[in-house]
Amino acid sequence: MPEWFEGFFDDLYYETYHVFEDEGRNEREARFIVEALGLRDGARVLDLGCGYARHAVYLAKWGYRVVCFDLSQALLARAVERAEGFGVSDRVEFVRGDMRSLGYKESFDGVYLFFTTFGYFDDEDNQAVLGGVSRALRRGGRLLLDLWNPVALMHYAYLFDGERRTWFEASDYVVLEETIYDVLDARVVAKRVFFRRGSTTPVAERSFSVRFYTYWELRKMLENAGMIVERAMGSYSGSDYRPSSPRLIIVARKI
User: What would the pLDDT profile of 63-90 be if each residue is shown by its tens digit?
Assistant: First the structure.
């Protein structure tokens, strides 16, 4: 059976996500990535799980050399178009592959996994991702992990007794999302049912399952991969991580 992430990040994903990601937001987040990683001029960066390269094109525009790595053929095709539109195709390399099998060795000054692009697998494979990242980084290079705040997820699990149903509108669709906060396996499992506006007949379903980790679990995993945590932030403004923070953002350095 195909794993959920092999089909989730398709054209439908793009249609219903990019409408929330205006260029002002994309550029602000790209600047945050540069600052958080402490990138020097001309640094080589790996955008791991790059999607449609919404941040990578800005890094390339500012003179960084970027490798966009993703499994989704659909999103990589969008990424190529986006790089062409920004005029940065000569500074961006596109690679299709599985993040559990990174083949790079001491090739990058910085790596980032943005907007919860971590936790797709079991614990062993998630650790393997971090091991591959560590090998791909040059000594002293940094990793930026941007994740859900696990404290907030536990709070939602308490408030909704582990299950939650929400609706949202995106592009030409109305979407029902049914979420399970599985506190026994520390996973968020969700199913999305898509309806065309004005119709009561579903046109598609998509599901995902993401493992969430606490700060101290991630710190140990990063240490096992040969990295040390330099800072934990709670938002893209760079504020310190707190239980009430919207995100858990970790910057780790390869030792």
Answer: 999 999 999 999 999 999 999 999 999 9
Structural domains for the chain: 5-149+213-254 (3.40.50.150), 151-210 (2.20.25)
For residue 168, give the H/E element and its range.
strand 163-170
Of 120, 95, 115, 107, the residue nearest 208 (C-alpha): 120
Q: Are residues 247 and 235 in contact, defined by beta-carbon separation less than 8 angstroms?
A: yes
What does the block give as tokens for 204? 């598609």
Strand partners, 210: 188
What would the DSSP string read from start to end of 175-196? EEEEEEEETTTTEEEEEEEEEE
The answer to whether 50 and 58 have CB atoms below 8 angstroms apart is: no
Take residue 252 and report the two structure tokens written for it.
Answer: 């780790």
* pTM for the full predicted model: 0.97
Q: How far apart are CA 92 and CA 156, in angstroms?
A: 39
CA dihedral 206, 128, 21, 246 (to 10 degrees): 100
Are 165 and 175 spatial neighbours (Cβ–Cβ below 8 Å)?
no
